[in-house]
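User: I'm curious what two different proteins look like when written out as structure tokens. Can you demonstrate?

Assistant: Sure. I'll show them one after the other, since each token string lines up with its own sequence. Here's the first protein:
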Amino acid sequence: MNKTRSIVLNLLAAAGLLLAACGGEPASPTADLPTAPPPTVAEETSQPAKGDAVEVEATEPVEATEAVEVTEAVEATDEPAPEATQASASGDSAGDATYVADLGFRPQSNGFNFPNYGGEPNVVNLTPAEMRRMFGDQVCARIEGDECTLTPPAQEWMEQNNDGMSGGHCEGMAALSLLMYGGKIDPAQFGGENASSLPFDNNEALQREIAYWFVTQATLPAADTIFKGTPAEIVEKLIEAYKDGNSAETYAVGVYKPDRSGGHAVAAYGVQDKGNGVYWIMVYDNNSPGEERYIEVDTNANTWQFEASPNPSIESEIYQGDADTNTLEIAPSSSRLEKQVCTFCDEATGKAGDSLAQAAPRYNEIWMDGNANLLLTDDAGNKLGMQGGTFYNEIPKAQVSFIKGGNLNEDDVPPLYRLPAGMGFSAVIDGDNLKSPDDPTELAMIGPGYYIGVESIEMDPGERDYLTFSGDGRSISYKTDYTETPAIIVGLERPQADYELELMGTDIEAGSEVKVDLDPDKGTMTFYSTSAQTSKFSLVISRIDDEETESFEGDELELDPTDKIILDYGEWSGNGKSLKVMYDQGGDGVIDETADMADEK
């Protein structure tokens, strides 16, 4: 064992940490670039040499196992590292120490020339083309030529991920810069010789590519390969990976606040030995283009620190962690290049590619868009999420992905939760931490072949809303002590046609509960309420089949107390046609009245 590794392996415990949140000013263009289709990535049995660039066909989604041609080399810079710009506890600069591992990557020539960005106007994130590229034809309800119309669960999943990028694209920028340097993605496809020469404005292809790699922080198997060791263990792993300039594996680094909020991703390219057990992990920080920055690790104390500020106008913060906080992690590039499994695809629909869906783990993913806290509870009372300032992770076999996309100027992106498919749960959306009325909040469960949830919730400070979900996606209830006009949303992937339904309450009594039951086999939706007064609803239906997408809009469905309404969406015959509505008075299971609801669109 060499001396460096011996030092790292035999040291323990404390220092301080700084964390850069995913944010920054909108990028400035270096040149206009016409929009180009995104490339695809092929999995290789052996790694190309450092600097080998891969050119891939951009017009057809390709399976990850297809071979690609190595066509062009991007030269690694030989220029020495400039002094680091961030302050160190010891006051040393990057040029005063010895690299014990050096990938050869440098922010000036291998990082992007524009800063990290969030939800700025005119930015394009995931499209159906990226969804098909990542998961295959199984995400398409219909394919016409090369145009994919997504299934309802795939569409909802894409929209939730795109919303999650509003706080920053740090993960995508860190991952893509390393893939370009390692020869896995050819920057010429986006208008330049290397990452630093690529324009941002009007470069839709690059924006979509960054979004593609952003989401791999939470897809499987990539998310399962994230290494969450102690700070000393992470230093050791990076030294081993990057010694002798080896680029067979590269790593993005994730850093978080102690409560796992404010996550940020940077690209690691080397390790410097500062002496006395202190190491600097040299990083390209997309919040600070062109600058050499570092994460300081004290292997004696087993602590780390990183200074964070998205731009010079915001005062820096120092964030810190140790061997117990689990707030420092590294994510390998190789697992991102593997075929990512589609946890929301339904193997029973008979659509193309469902053999891949059968191999996917069966999970329900719970996504929230909004700034309130979310707490999930299973039938045994185990908790998952935030309550009273404490994060709970008690539900067996549950998974949590903390999305690295927080911005010091923005609210944090809520975590993604995965529960085993079939597990029912209750949810509390807690607005106690809100200081002012929030933008509309949405909570959705996306599972294999379905999604179900509630959107357009106007959360006030102190408000709490309560929901229950069945684990098979066939039932949801929503209750609030406030007067709300929520929309219950449903998406179903079926063999003959897919459906999306939106049931909007236009006059819901405060304190009442609305419940929806689905029977996908019969093609019916049943809803009822505990309200003591008549409630009013409107309805939107979309049906997607192999030939077209048709829609229905209906207004003023009146639900009397104790009654149930059954909507026969499966028998709806298309654009302009009426919808059969059945009324069960008293909710005794007997249909007392049938009516035709006109299409009002």
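Here's a second, unrelated protein for contrast:
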Amino acid sequence: MKNIRNFCIIAHIDHGKSTLADRLLDFTGSVTEREKKDQLLDSMDIERERGITIKSHAIQMEYFHQGEKYVFNLIDTPGHVDFSYEVSRSIAACEGALLVVDAAQSIQAQTISNLYLALENDLEIIPVLNKVDLPSANPEEVTDDIVGLLGCDSEDVIPASAKTGLGIKSILEAIISKVPCPKGDLNSPLQALIFDSIYNPFRGVETYFRVINGEIKKGDKVKFLATGKDYNVDDVGLLKLKQEPKNSVSAGDVGYLITGIKEASEVKVGDTIVSSKSINTPAIDGFEEVKPMVFAGIYPVDTEDYEELRSSMEKLQLNDASLVFIPESSAALGFGFRCGFLGMLHLEIIQERLEREFGMPVITTVPNVSYQAYIKKNPQEIIPVNNPSDLPDPSYLDRVEEPYIKASIITKSDFVGNIMSLCIEKRGVITNQSYLTPERVELTFDMPLAEIVFDFYDRLKTVSKGYASFDYSPIGLRSSKLVKVDILLNGNQVDALSALIHADNAYNIGKKMCEKLRELIPRQQFDIPVQAAIGAKIISRETIKALRKDVTAKCYGGDISRKRKLLEKQKKGKKKMRQIGSVEIPQEAFMAVLKLND
């Protein structure tokens, strides 16, 4: 065990984590020339297309140093704030972390956020200054920033270039000397932490775990503490580039386990695996629960595919434990699921993965956040509002509380004015402004989570020309004046388009929604009124004009009453059509609400 090192790589988006992982694999000879490719650990098509890491990936490497063989278990983690849960799971399975900072971009918001996460778990931090070969790199200044953040010496910061391979040897030597070996006991009863799992259609659920104490052998009987079920170990092994079966995996190591589980719900990330024989082995604590930030409904395009969608979501949840869902129904869309996501990018990725990996096209409703309502009759009772339709009648309502966040934005000093205007527009209150260097400022705001759900991140990048980095953490609930804005099509309420909005913005947003829907909904044979309403009060209206046939074309000459008769007949037909006609709403209309400012 003294020669095992478990570590992860943490950094902001695009600071070179995956490229550094590629170089470490090359240097330790873990991949052959044939297997080499860029972003080797990013196995999903979406990851390669977008150039981002979505899933954390575990891989084992072997390295010889001063005549001794060392085993490295590396977990490459995502950098985007929406996948921070993946990072927290990786950190729970490690003793050390490489903190990668881009020498051109310096420390960004997500770097600081991930660093605090690692320090809370008592991980040994090795700072790496990446991309020092770039012409725009500023190594001396960025090294000072890292020293200021970590309180380490400037000699501890390793200059490297993942592209050219510079500094890789120093990084490996620092891992050996600084990262502590695992502290487990080989002779204690088995205790292993599940940090990930994937679904294999042929072999069932493959569980990825880290052994804390004892060992797990092929043919053993093990128990998952969360479900209390016993399983036989059919296959166990190590996570190299391809899975490598072994007879046993012992304390300190990371491996995979196949027990023939077919039900996705039986494997929970953060669960503890113990031996069926030992009765009193405690669960491993310190694993945080996922907190969804954004809620949206996901419905199958064809209502008959509901069960198939459920099965697809369960399999996807195995691979992405931060996805939370419960069944719900909508008058407009039938049966579907209310899903919790960590952010808008997470929602987009889940929707794309359902379509690609499971062939399930879905309709996504307007995302919102979770509120708490209190009624006058019983002010102590909390009514959770995950969906605008859950909001009690305004006449019974005492108050509504909405979640607030502490937002941290790091930017160049030139863009402070623009960013402040954006945050104030989004109901933000500035709480702190500190200059990290004469050029770089950290702004801290308290603002409602609902305001950042839609387009905040995109607009922040626009007003700062891409230089602002953003991170947030929840700070609890505050009372707010919220109203429910309903959309009516042809007099019928469309519950999937309802939204809870602050009273000051309700009129403006209702008007924009009506205008947007007028453009997107195809014209019918009859006039369609599109209305926005708060309770019984209509606050905005647009009309989608009818496609009209010229019924008077055949009248040439003669008395005007002939034309009038035909027009009256047409009018009656249109009226009847409007009473029985139904309006199809295209998928773009549901998502258009998110892009009201375009």
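A detail about the second structure: The domain at 4-178 is CATH 3.40.50.300 (Rossmann fold).
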